[in-house]
Write a structure and sequence with these properties.
With 44 residues, the protein is mainly alpha-helical. It is 43% helix and 0% strand. This is Proline-rich protein.
């Protein structure tokens, strides 16, 4: 029984640039901060 020859997988090349997690944090962190700062304060 012949062994199969090794073939390089044909797939997408890895994307260069920030990862999906970094991009998501970069977009959501300022929005969460703005909501926290601009939220009306309860006056006691």
């Amino acid at each position: 029984m012949a062994l199969p020859t090794y073939r390089k997988t044909t797939g997408r090349e890895p994307r260069s640039g920030p990862s999906l997690v970094s991009t998501t944090l970069l977009i959501t962190a300022p929005a969460v901060f703005a909501v926290a700062v601009l939220r009306p304060r309860s006056s006691r």
